[in-house]
């Protein structure tokens, strides 16, 4: 995850009104199947690549790694997207934006390797993230868990699935973090405002915290009920969260941003959690952030 905030125009591209714009759920299902297959193939390329750690370089900081596999994988994804959908725009981590994000009917947001540091050091928790956004917000989201070889996908209004089969989403009966997991991420390689206080509150609720090093996986796991909540309170790019946010909300979780209940793709902090705990987590986060001067 980079040390950069999401550009305002990347969250929900302004597109012309079109009565056929993904109105038919069959169109969404087709896009989802395509993205699932592509993410799976890209993920297996990542897994099977002959990675030489000496070929890795850093970008914005000493903790922001880039490997040749990142670029090669994004090239694969872009080539397939462009061949299948030449009129769609593409925003990705490692290559310049393709197309006009303000005019394209669909904008794809691609992270070829979310969790590059984990990948470099063989730690697991590595994913390929592919999300499609239209005029109504996130439309399709796929996160492929590279080392589980598991593809988690969702399309707006169609629920969550794993490896192409419908999956049980999050547990909407959760009313406490006690005995459960909250996932979060660093802000780049630093703490986010109010992080210590917020995580202390989780501890006091007898919950536990994990930091995976992949925003996409942290959100996708929440959508499947593997975490009780996921809080991405630091800085991120659209490609870090575009797919995972949709998986979480299609899994039955509520989405909050820094101002409260939200939709679309929040640009400056987000929380996904079941109805029974989301308000408490959000209130704790925002109060802690305010006390930290944010």
Structure, described:
It is an enzyme of class 3 (hydrolase). With 294 residues, this protein is α+β, with helices and mostly antiparallel strands. The chain folds into two domains: 148 residues, Fructose-1,6-Bisphosphatase, Chain A, domain 1 (2-Layer Sandwich), CATH 3.30.540; 113 residues, D-Maltodextrin-Binding Protein, domain 2. It has eight helices and 15 strands. The N terminus is likely disordered. Strand 8 and strand 9 form a beta hairpin. It starts with 7 loop residues before the first helix and ends with a helix. Helices cover 34% and strands 23% of the residues. It has a seven-stranded mixed sheet with strand order 3-4-5-6-7-8-9, sandwiched between helices. It has a six-stranded mixed sheet with strand order 11-10-12-15-13-14, with helices on both faces. A two-stranded antiparallel sheet has the order 1-2.
State the gist of this model.
It contains eight helices and 15 strands.
Adjacency order of strands in the biggest sheet: 3-4-5-6-7-8-9
Number of strands: 15
User: N-to-C SSE series?
Assistant: HHEEHEEHEEEEEEHEHEHEEEH
Radius of gyration: 18 Å
Total helices: the number is: 8
Shape: globular
* Category by helix and strand content: alpha+beta
Taking the sheet with the most strands, its summary is: 7 strands, mixed
CATH superfamily of the largest domain: Fructose-1,6-Bisphosphatase, subunit A, domain 1
End-to-end Cα distance, whole Å, is 20 Å
């Amino acid at each position: 995850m980079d040390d950069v905030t999401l550009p305002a125009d990347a969250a929900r591209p302004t597109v012309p009104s079109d009565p056929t714009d993904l109105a038919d759920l069959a169109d969404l299902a087709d896009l989802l199947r395509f993205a699932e297959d592509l993410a799976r193939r890209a993920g297996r390329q990542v897994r099977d690549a002959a990675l030489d750690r000496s070929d890795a370089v850093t970008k914005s900081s000493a903790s922001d790694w880039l490997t040749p596999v990142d670029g090669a994988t994004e090239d694969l994804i872009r080539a397939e997207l462009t061949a299948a959908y030449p009129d769609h725009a593409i925003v990705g981590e490692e290559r310049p934006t393709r197309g006009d994000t303000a005019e394209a009917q669909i904008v794809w947001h691609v992270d070829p390797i979310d969790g590059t540091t984990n990948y470099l050091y063989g730690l697991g928790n590595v994913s390929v993230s592919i999300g499609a956004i239209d005029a109504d917000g996130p439309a399709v989201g796929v996160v492929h868990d590279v080392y589980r070889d598991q593809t988690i996908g969702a399309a707006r209004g169609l629920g969550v699935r794993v490896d192409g089969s419908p999956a049980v989403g999050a547990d909407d009966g959760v009313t406490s973090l006690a005995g459960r997991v909250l996932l979060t991420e660093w802000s780049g390689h630093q703490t986010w405002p109010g992080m210590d206080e917020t995580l202390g509150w989780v501890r006091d609720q007898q919950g536990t915290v994990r930091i995976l090093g992949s925003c996409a996986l942290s959100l996708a796991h929440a959508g499947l009920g593997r975490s009780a909540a996921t809080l991405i309170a630091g800085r991120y790019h659209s490609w870090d969260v575009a797919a995972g946010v949709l998986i979480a909300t299609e899994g039955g979780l509520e989405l909050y941003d820094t101002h409260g209940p939200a939709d679309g793709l929040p640009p400056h902090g987000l929380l996904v959690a079941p109805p029974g705990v989301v308000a408490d987590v959000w209130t704790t986060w925002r109060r802690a952030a305010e006390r930290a001067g944010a």
